[in-house]
TrEMBL record:
Gene3D superfamilies (alphabetical): 3.10.450.50
Name the record gives this protein: Uncharacterized protein
InterPro entries registered for this protein in UniProt: NTF2-like_dom_sf
Domain of life, source organism: Bacteria
SUPFAM superfamilies: NTF2-like
Length: 67
């Protein structure tokens, strides 16, 4: 997400992806449209720049929280 390469969203988000931002729709296709509006396309980095606060996983469900 940091690089805004929404063309790879299908690889990392299921089509039943739930967005909890009240200003954005909740499916994967809408996620790409929402973030593409205000995030500038950047090279994909080898590391995440935003500090990771927590990673939670249960079965095949994973969430990552960034600072």
């Amino acid at each position: 997400m940091e690089g805004t390469h929404m063309e790879v969203a299908e690889k990392y988000f299921t089509d039943t992806y739930r967005q909890h931002n009240p200003n954005a729709a909740t499916v994967r296709k809408a996620l790409a449209a929402f973030f593409s509006k205000f995030m500038k396309l950047q090279p994909i980095s080898d590391t995440i720049k935003a500090p990771v606060v927590a990673i939670l996983a249960e079965g095949n469900l994973v969430t990552i929280s960034f600072a």
